[in-house]
Design brief:
Helix content is 51%, strand content 11%. By secondary structure, it is of the alpha+beta class. It folds into 3 domains: 107 residues, Serine Threonine Protein Phosphatase 5, Tetratricopeptide repeat (Alpha Horseshoe), CATH 1.25.40; 93 residues, Serine Threonine Protein Phosphatase 5, Tetratricopeptide repeat, CATH 1.25.40.10; 75 residues. The strands form 2 sheets. The protein has a 4-stranded mixed beta sheet, with helices on both faces. A two-stranded antiparallel ribbon has the order 1-2. It is globular, with a radius of gyration of 20 Å.
Length: 341
């Protein structure tokens, strides 16, 4: 571990380098980016942080979870979702609650989030018992990160059959086996969910649970990208699937035996004093050969500095993701968050 005052954390397709914060104050806003750095979301950011507009907070959060314009990444989404939750947004509480389930230290004000999340889930459960389908979806989503997960997935499958597109997407994400997942995604796509269309299209592209049909998959990717632009849909339209689907294609074997392609932290550290934007997420696309080694790589979303991009690309170019026998689709994408806090 380096003696520099920052730390390194690695996850699937992500890199975090903790150093000095660059936010708005020294309280819970400290990790949030200045609104001027959020481009088209600057006004919504200001309405959220200065005007207490929960809907604006949620718009920024959703954009940075899925949106085509997202530039800062999942952590920004979590923080704005937390503010949306504090302003009474049920969707914001769901996102924030899930963040807390992954990391109990996600929020300085976590006790307030936990109270609101718990209360929201309680209300959703009561409304579900009274026959409110939308609240049943929310109640099931509340339980996905608990010991009641399997019961929640079963409820989502029932709600999918009953016509909830959101339930189909969630049930497909947590389905047991590729055939069931493809069926649930297919139902959600029929009901108009762009996320489900991406799911069933990825299944068709890879031949997971359904017959392989690249042409129909491309049509669905194009529809999803045009209807609800997201990195996942639009990158898929360009030929790149999320690296998480590589794990599915390899039937849970994983990403290979040599580990994830981690960037050179010494090279990143050497740039620390020169970078204006201190927290961003980059997306690298890469195509694999039969042996699982990278044959080509490029940035699908730049980090914002060509030197950081090159460190990431060098790592991806040197990566090996395991035997690709039987996997006809070969191009994937993964995210790297470089965060000096």
């Amino acid at each position: 571990m380096s003696s520099l005052p920052w730390k390194l954390g690695l996850g699937i397709g992500s890199l975090g380098l903790g150093a000095c914060a660059f936010g708005m104050s020294l309280d819970e806003y400290a990790e949030l980016p200045m609104c001027s750095r959020l481009g088209v979301w600057a006004q919504s950011c200001a309405s959220c942080l200065e005007g207490g507009d929960g809907d604006a907070c949620l718009r920024v959060a959703e954009a940075h979870r899925h949106g085509q314009d997202a530039r800062i990444g999942e952590r920004t989404a979590e923080l704005f979702a937390g503010h949306a939750c504090q302003q009474g947004s049920s969707r914001g509480c769901l996102i924030a609650g899930a963040a807390l389930a992954r990391d109990a230290r996600a929020y300085e004000y976590r006790e307030a989030i936990q109270r609101r999340f718990g209360r929201f889930c309680e209300i959703a459960s009561l409304a579900c018992e009274q026959g409110n389908q939308g609240q049943c979806v929310a109640a099931a989503e509340c339980a996905l990160d608990t010991t009641d997960r399997m019961k929640a997935v079963g409820l989502l499958e029932e709600l999918c059959v009953d016509g909830s597109a959101r339930a189909c997407t969630l049930a497909g994400d947590h389905a047991h086996g590729p055939t069931r997942a493809a069926a649930l995604y297919g139902r959600g796509c029929e009901l108009g969910s762009a996320e489900s269309c991406v799911g069933v299209a990825a299944s068709e592209q890879l031949g997971l649970g359904v017959a392989r049909d690249p042409d129909d998959a491309q049509a669905k990717f194009t529809y999803a990208c045009g209807t609800s632009p997201s990195f996942t849909a639009c990158n898929a339209m360009a030929g790149y699937l999320p690296v998480s689907w590589l794990g599915r294609a390899r039937l849970g074997v994983g990403l290979g035996t040599t580990g994830l392609p981690a960037p050179d932290t010494d090279r990143l550290a050497s740039l620390r004093g020169e970078l204006d934007e201190l927290d961003r997420t980059a997306v690298a696309g890469f195509c694999l050969g039969d042996d699982g080694r990278t044959q080509a790589a490029r940035m699908l979303q730049t980090w914002g500095d060509p030197r950081v991009d090159e460190v990431i690309l060098d790592a991806v170019r040197g990566g090996r993701f395991g035997d690709q026998t039987g996997i006809e689709h070969r191009c994937w994408w993964m995210t790297y968050r470089v965060n000096y806090r």
